[in-house]
Amino acid sequence: MPTTLDRIDRALLAALQDNARLTIAELADQVSLTTSPCWRRVKQLEEQGYITGYQATLSPKSLGFGVTAFVSIMMDSHTKDMARAFEKRLMEIPEIVACHHISGRYDFLLEILARDLESFGEFAREVLQRLPGVKEIYSSFSYKAVKERRIIPVSENHI
């Protein structure tokens, strides 16, 4: 992956991150290019791995998820096989919307959506505690999302 992006590349990334539904013509207009070079640059950014996909941002609340939990998991074993089994199983559970392998006391940090506290409790008992290699679970709950949208900095100062 190239280490430098020019002004137009950064402008394309910022515009698409803000609204991935822009047509190539609208995008080209925003970054002062004609459509063909704009399309080529977007394809190049995709091929180079700067753009990894496009998706809609959904509202958990509108879809009936009233609880966001952050769950720290401590593993009882740190073998490669156990980690693979754990991670493979996580990928199959739609309520787990994010997972990070972290440093510190705990090994993994999960972000989980649930309809309410009661359904989260059932999920913790029936799903989380049965994951391969889990030794300890610690849960925290979000009162309010302060900064919810994940925007990757693309300005020249950050890249």
Produce a short descriptive summary:
This protein has 159 residues and is an alpha+beta fold.
SSE diagram, text form:
Elements: H1 7-18, H2 24-30, H3 35-47, E1 67-75, H4 80-90, E2 96-101, E3 108-114, H5 117-126, E4 134-141
Antiparallel strand pairs: 1-3, 1-4, 2-3
Helix pairs in contact: 2-3
Description:
This protein is of the alpha+beta class and 159 residues long. The chain folds into 2 domains: 41 residues, Arc Repressor Mutant, subunit A, CATH 1.10.10.10; 75 residues, Lrp/AsnC effector binding domain/regulation of amino acid metabolism (RAM) domain (Alpha-Beta Plaits). The chain has a 4-stranded antiparallel sheet. Strand 2 and strand 3 form a beta hairpin.
CATH class of the largest domain: Alpha Beta
Fourth-tier CATH superfamily name of the largest domain:
Lrp/AsnC effector binding domain/regulation of amino acid metabolism (RAM) domain
- Strand segment count: 4
Q: What's the helix count?
A: 5
Radius of gyration: 20 Å
Shape: elongated
Q: What is the percentage of strand-forming residues? A: 15-25%
Biggest β-sheet strands, sense, barrel? 4 strands, antiparallel
Structural class estimated from helices and strands: alpha+beta
Give the overall pLDDT as a whole number.
94
Q: What's the structural domain tally?
A: 2
Helicity range: 25-40%
Here the CATH topology of the largest domain equals Alpha-Beta Plaits
Based on the coordinates given, report the CATH architecture of the largest domain: 2-Layer Sandwich
Unreliable sequence segments: none
* Distance between the first and last residues' Cα: 13 Å
Largest beta sheet: strand ordering: 2-3-1-4
